[in-house]
Batch of 2 targets.
Target 1
Amino acid sequence: MNDVKDTSGGEVITNVALKDIANLSKRRGFIFQNSEIYGGIGSVWDYGPLGIELKNNVKAEWWKSMVYDRDDVEGLDAAIIMNPETWKASGHVSSFADLLADCLECKKRFRTDKIQGESCPECGGKLTEPRSFDLMFKTRVGSVEGEALDIYLRPETAQGIFVNFSNILNSSRQKPPFGVAQIGKSFRNEITTGNFTFRSREFEQMELEFFVKPGEDEQWYEYWVEARFNWYIGLGIKKENLRLREHAPDELAHYAKKCHDVEFLFPMGWSELEGIANRTDYDLKQHSSLSGQELNYFDDATGERYVPYVIEPSGGVDRAVLAFLINAYRTETVRDRKRTYLSFDNRLAPIKAAVLPLLKNKPEIVEMAHRIRDDIRGVYRVVYDDTASIGRLYRRQDEIGTPYCITVDVESLEDGKVTVRERDSMDQVRLEASALKNFLKDKLENC
Ligand code: GAP
């Protein structure tokens, strides 16, 4: 248990390569390559026992800030499969494609909007003419040939909100300004992949469509840009690694009047974490015109009818998870040994506490440790572990970001006290076992 941090141990290193994150993710059970036993499939990932906890915590924090902490946002869970007319109206059928060029020398493929000049950015070779690649996955609904309908897996969750605009307006007591929040899977047949989970073919989005009166859109846009930037900071992303970048006019999506990206300094450079767009009245008008259904709002107070403008903060769950992993990664030398730990905000940590018996061959200690584990678990994930020496058990919990390790020793049997070790500082305190529940509640729920 002699694990107090040696202050002469040197600096804490926070730089990390993507391959270190990918290795740790696999070794500890955060993220696995999908269908790996068959050689995998490009850019599709599975979340392991710790990954699912981290992902759920990220989604819960987003939902809390978007829905539970406000009274002007409703939730929705729309289906992935939609009537294909949706994608004609949204503009995805005609314009959701990447322009790609291949290098005739090294055979690498590039998005032409991401490279400068007309030759290969890697080897200087000649590039082919740009070709358009459709990003939507196509499949079929129905089994009888001729009667089957060609459909798409949704490339964004947003359209499920737009087509439900009237349903939500009529069934809730909301009126503009109000929003609809949704978290769900999206699919894109990405051609240029790599960088671990950053650009996946199956991924999750957290999207809010916030409907406002035209003319009030600019001020709500500013509001959401600031709110979304601060959400990441509030959950521990270092300010120097987060920035806002406004889209140049030629970068804007076909529906957007204005867009800011929240960018994170990933190991491969500044890259998009989330986009906040002013989508104007584009989507509601398009769906109105193609469906023949009125999608607008009548204001009883003023007698005015209008099509709301939409401000859309659209974040990727997988990119947020990756950013939180990178942001949390630390290494340092303690008593001549390298220690790796994930310094997650307590709200995001996959496991909140580990109960560790100092001697596993002493039944009374094991029994007391189990009792403590049973007492504190239920609200959040707590584990019991006695499969290695205490030093190794600490290292394991450090590496998966568990904020508190609770050790039961021989003295505990006499004085009813346990040792609580904090992950980052490695500080230890002795506490009555009966006080643990309140201690953890205070630490974990009042971040
Ligand atoms: N509804 C607007 C929309 O979908 P987007 O910029 O294409 O806008 C929003 O996507 C967010 O979704 C991105 O900022 C990113 O976090 C995430 N995202 C998009 N494509 C992704 C992919 N292939 N893999 C992982 N996340 C992706």
Target 2
Amino acid sequence: MSAHKQLTIGLFGFGVVGEGLYKVLQQTPSLKASIKKVCIKNPNKKREAPDSLFTTDRYEILNDPEINLVVEVINESTPAFEIVSTALKNGKDAVSASKKMLAEHLPQLLELQKQTGKSLLYEASACASIPVIRNLEEYYDNDLLHSVKGIVNGSTNYILTKMFEEKLDFKQALLQAQQLGFAEADPTLDVDGWDAVNKWVILLLHAYGIVASVDEVLFNGIQNIQGGDAAVGREKNLEIRLVGQAKKLQNGKVATFVLPQFVKKDDHLSFVKNEYNGFVVESSFADKQFFYGKGAGSFPTASAVLSDISALRYHYQYEYKKLYHHQPAQLTNDFYLKVYVSFDDWKYIPREKFEWIEEWHAEDDRKYLVGVLHAKELIENNWWKQHNLSLILKPDAIIEDIEIRNLKKKSLELAGIA
Ligand code: HSE
């Protein structure tokens, strides 16, 4: 058995997560991991830790041979990548919570881990306190995973809960999410779906061995959702969530998106409120499994970083089994989605792009339709992202290519057209 490693940590960032980690480590002396230095940007900010702990020179950490672990929890992705890649090259293990940086640099980071043999762990980067990456990595075989879906952004989930259950307006709800330390420094990253899609790219790698970039994933945030949409859902017993899904189609390829979706009351994800995240795995024999926990905030995020630190004492590394030891799955845009769209003028709706429109109605100034679109149309064009239009997936939105002809015929018959 390999020996426990004594960890001497150089920490980058002392914001919501960094300070949380500092406090959490003080409460877990048994871990035998101590922070030697903390690199920060602004030395004049008041911090609850001795001044001697801090530096503004990143090389005080990166070139210190005594420091064998770099923990990076800063906001900006370019310096985060420089820090993590230099740490690995300098023979140190690294732990990161920077989802944007990870999603933007996966191929380089995979290569660097191979070259250096050092470990890079990032459990906190997706679903914060829920150990979803390590579970996908260690427990689930790519071939047996039918689908993974989840709520992976705490701030947007918090905003949706506050707006539609407590009737707060959008601005107030966002302000609360910022004050509670859930939102990104630039909250449009949360609201417009960037944070969720960054996390989704990381999860695709560990679920299916897919190395994708954000432009390959169909996504949007909650910026265009209106009170009227929630009211339409309520009439049908549906709630709105920002949902990521990756589903293996019958041809073996993987369909994926991160989009607002109506979820049924008996869907596990409808149970997920406020800053909580949820993750549902569907596999061949276990059927459905549901992971649930806090997806944002200081201590929940620090707890995942702590777990990575603890795993490094035992020399844990991601093996990227789905990528290196299995046949990695491939993404496809060749599938269809059943969507609900609300809008204020038909002129914004390119009707010819719909495979079919199943129903529509108008109420006061707003119009609503339910129809089917090809995913390729949505990923290649942006008409559906304009601000006066809100596109929300119906539950069970994915329709496979092979189902489409039958469904189309049936829907035209119902509409009395065929
Ligand atoms: N802004 C992120 C969220 C923080 O709201 O989920 C956790 O990654």
